[in-house]
Amino acid sequence: MEKEEKYGGSTFVMEIVAIILGLLFLVPFYFVAINSLKTLGEILVDAASFPSEVIWANYSKAWEVIKFPKALFNSVSIVIVSVSLIVVVSTMTAYRFVRRATLFNKILFSMLIASMIIPFQSIMLQLVRITSLLELRGNFYGVVACYIGFGLALSTFLFHGFIKTVPLEIEEAAVVDGCSPLGVFWKIVFPLLKPIIITVVILNTLWIWNDYLLPVLVIGSNKDLTTLPLAITRLFGQYTKQWDLALAALAVSITPILIFFLFLQKHIVEGITAGSVKG
């Protein structure tokens, strides 16, 4: 029988450090929560103290000012369509790269991975020009197309590592049974990718939900497509900054994605760990 690991001083120190780091990460949530219930004057005087009087009206006012239902619908729609297409395209791309490891495919994969080191800020002007030229600015499909383009590299990289762990013998047996190439992928391989699919969905959802810069460039002045990050900026003008309403709006906007992340977070490590082992 294996000996049980003793609870030593090093373990205690690591637990204390972990608790301190956890509390540090919770500090921003503390400031958002308590200041969303204060008046603007009280926030400016002391942002760290508890509210002397809880102002729940901040939430109702922020809801109306940023038109929360419409902004929420836009954010959810963009996230669902973008992430779904990223998963479909990147899984098929990665599968092709792994199972058809030709020189051409290896070069394409290397170029795809290399694109991840290019800073987004260095291509912003080109992005605006291209989207304008293709008439993609200010419409839903333009935003989705941009998110697919920028999310494809990392997603393909993660799927590429995971597909290597899928035994080739399973696919060969399916082919012997008369399964078509598309059938092998969708009926055999794709269901086996569930852990890494959940990981990719979580990572891309968090990115797209909180993204501000790309919607500003692509959506522009189209108020019908305003996402939550763009809607919150309405509370900040050149001369006025409504921190009380902005923090209430921020608290409301992060709630759905926070619940989503807490519900699926255990799959992140599982998916990345499984994908890091070559089959």
TrEMBL record:
Protein name (record): Carbohydrate ABC transporter permease
Pfam families associated with the record: BPD_transp_1 (PF00528)
Presence of keyword Transport: yes
InterPro entries the UniProt entry points to: MetI-like, MetI-like_sf
Source organism superkingdom: Bacteria
Transmembrane segments: 12-34, 71-95, 107-128, 140-163, 184-209, 245-264
Compartments where located: Cell membrane
SUPFAM superfamilies xrefs: MetI-like
Keywords of the record: Cell membrane, Membrane, Transmembrane, Transmembrane helix, Transport
Species annotation: Paenibacillus oenotherae
